[in-house]
Amino acid sequence: FQVAMSEKGRKNETFGLYLLLGGLFITALITCNLIANKFVTVDLGFKVFTISAGVLPYPITFLLTDILSEIYGRKKTNAVVYTGFFASLFVLFMLFLGSLFPSIEESPVSDEYYNTVFQNSWRVILASMVAYLTAQLVDVRLFHFWKKLTKGKKLWLRNNASTILSQFVDTTLVVLVLFVGVIPIERIGDFILDGWFFKVLVALMDTVFIYLFIWLIRRRFSLKQGEEIDFL
Predict the structure, then answer these.
(1) String of b and e for 17-47 (b: at least 16 CB within 10 Å)?
(2) What is the C-alpha to C-alpha distance for residues 88 and 209, in angstroms, rounded to an integer?
(3) Which one in 4, 10, 166, 190 has a CA-CA gap of 20 to 30 Å to 230?
């Protein structure tokens, strides 16, 4: 009975961690969509990057999918990716719905301000959704490709190789959908390179964190290298 309870408690705990990581992923993703319209400059000393504000939290989503992929496997990670996609569509629909009703005189936020901040154009919505789903699925697929190729070793390789390639896909799709026919092609190239290079730097820096998180999770649940959790 104690063994059964222990096993049940372990499954509950692993499922709870899965929900936590998935929740953080969806939160970061939705934040990206809400602030994507603002473009900013980020000065790192050696280079000044011109990027969408949505790029700032976006690398966190790739860190989380890599952790999920390593611990829970491809199918459960893809389930989180699809959930994030539909959650984003729901948020965008609610923002659109909010724009249909005129604000009252006492409202601290006028229709003009609301629409400026939240009423994304079709280009932003299309760019965000297409790039997100494509890049995340590419990231998960590449992560497991490298995991299988290295037989569960070299976590740093699959973390960075999958993220760097999928971030290039994401950045290119977003910038092309947003700006083709709007700004000169040379400027589009600058936006792609700036956004991608910034994401690459963040991906390289988060290698330390993924090793730390994976080590803590493996230690907590007594997992062997390359072993995945099945909480069903």
Answers:
(1) bbeebbeebbbbbbbbbbbbbeeeeeeeeee
(2) 26
(3) 166
The DSSP symbol for 51 reads: E
Q: What is the pLDDT of residues 5-43, one digit of tens each?
A: 467 777 888 899 999 999 999 999 888 878 877 888 888
Task: Report DSSP letters for 130-181, one per residue.
Answer: HHHHHHHHHHHHHHHHHHHHTTT--HHHHHHHHHHHHHHHHHHHHHHHHHTT
Name the percent of the chain in helix, strand, coil, to the closest 5: 75, 5, 20
CB neighbour burial string for 59-93, b if at least 16 within 10 angstroms, e if fewer = bbbbbbbbbbbbbbbbebbbebbeebbebbeebbe
List the structure tokens of 119: 């009423």
